From TrEMBL:
Residues 201-236 form the HTH cro/C1-type domain. The chain holds residues 358 to 639 of 639 of the full protein. Residues 24-277 form the EAL domain. This is Diguanylate cyclase (GGDEF) domain. It comes from Marinomonas fungiae. It comes from the Bacteria.
């Protein structure tokens, strides 16, 4: 009993008693409503050609527009979704909303590929590919307008099932990116086994690339690796012109980051597309 009581005390201390724990419990209980009422919105961040400064694609990033607490970042609520058994529902929610946005843009004469971030668990959903394919058909959107971003760590779980889903996505024309490249623990061989189209170099290697020679070497190696596997490379977290120029010189031709734009609501993204870049480009 004593043991039990101390366990309970520990639980109490780490969860229910502190304010953050209370908030977490509240958010978790509000998730179903958030999804049903479409409180979770996709923001879009441009993927840019570093030479021309032109937008080549959009990455959809989820935000919870909480009715009381304002905009909540994905790193706060996505873990709650995962703990609440709603991963599958959320993965489909994100795909559905991205396709909806693609069809809105299509009616405006805008064709811009959209990348969505998926949890590895979404690839264990046996119907995720046919779900995507059907929505694309209904909306008259070619699946090659969609891209999937998957973190490198994700690929180490259930590799066999995940690679089967990824291959089926590829068969219908959806392209695959490895996100946060360089931060995971997985073997480089995954890049070839998983037949990926793009690697996205994690922003931790980009943020000080002008001054940190070991990060410069990592980026150079990633670029060589990508060349060997015929992958496109995107640098994440480009925050200034110096970084963009250096990356371009190294042979990395695409980037994302606050230098170009933070993630913005869809209508703001549409506005970004309509104006030619005025920033100096590398
Ligand atoms: P990610 O896919 O690597 O997305 C890049 C993150 O870096 C985004 O954070 C973006 O706002 C931020 N970022 C972009 N440019 C810069 C920059 O120049 N400087 C800095 N400091 N940050 C920059 P965000 O939106 O908070 O998303 C965090 C992570 O949450 C994402 O990382 C992704 O792994 C996950 N996530 C976001 N939306 C979804 C989703 O719909 N589904 C799933 N499963 N995960 C998502
Ligand atoms: Mg991403
Ligand atoms: Mg990333
Ligand atoms: Mg990252």
């Amino acid at each position: 009993a004593k043991k039990l009581r101390s366990k309970w005390a520990l639980f109490n201390k780490s969860h229910a008693n502190d304010e953050k724990g209370q908030q977490t419990l509240r958010y978790r209980s509000e998730l179903s409503e958030a999804l049903a009422e479409q409180q979770i919105k996709l923001f879009y961040q441009p993927k840019v050609n570093l030479t021309s400064g032109k937008i080549v694609a959009a990455e959809a990033l989820a935000r919870w527009q909480h009715p009381v607490d304002g905009m909540l970042p994905p790193l706060l609520f996505i873990p709650l979704i995962e703990q609440s058994g709603k991963v599958r529902e959320f993965g489909r929610y994100v795909i559905r909303h991205a396709i909806k946005q693609l069809s809105i843009w299509k009616t405006q004469g805008i064709m811009v590929p959209v990348a969505v971030n998926l949890s590895p668990y979404n690839l264990l959903d046996p119907d995720i590919v046919s779900y995507t394919q059907e929505l694309c058909e209904k909306a008259d959107i070619p699946p090659n307008m969609l891209e999937i971003e998957l973190t490198e760590t994700a690929t180490s779980l259930h590799l066999h099932t995940i690679s089967a889903s990824l291959n089926r996505f590829k068969e219908i024309g959806v392209s695959i990116s490895i996100d946060d490249f360089g931060t995971g623990m997985s073997s480089l061989a995954y890049i070839s086994n998983l037949n990926v189209d793009t690697i996205k170099i994690d922003r931790s290697f980009i943020s000080d690339i002008e001054t940190n020679s070991s990060n410069l070497s990592i980026v150079t190696s990633a670029l060589n690796l990508a060349k060997a596997f015929n992958c496109t490379v995107v640098a994440e977290g480009v925050e200034n012109l110096e970084q963009a120029t250096l990356l371009n010189k190294l042979g990395c031709h695409y980037g994302q980051g606050y230098y170009y734009s933070a993630p913005v609501p869809a209508d703001k993204f549409t506005a970004l597309l309509k104006f030619t870049p005025t920033l100096p480009v590398s």
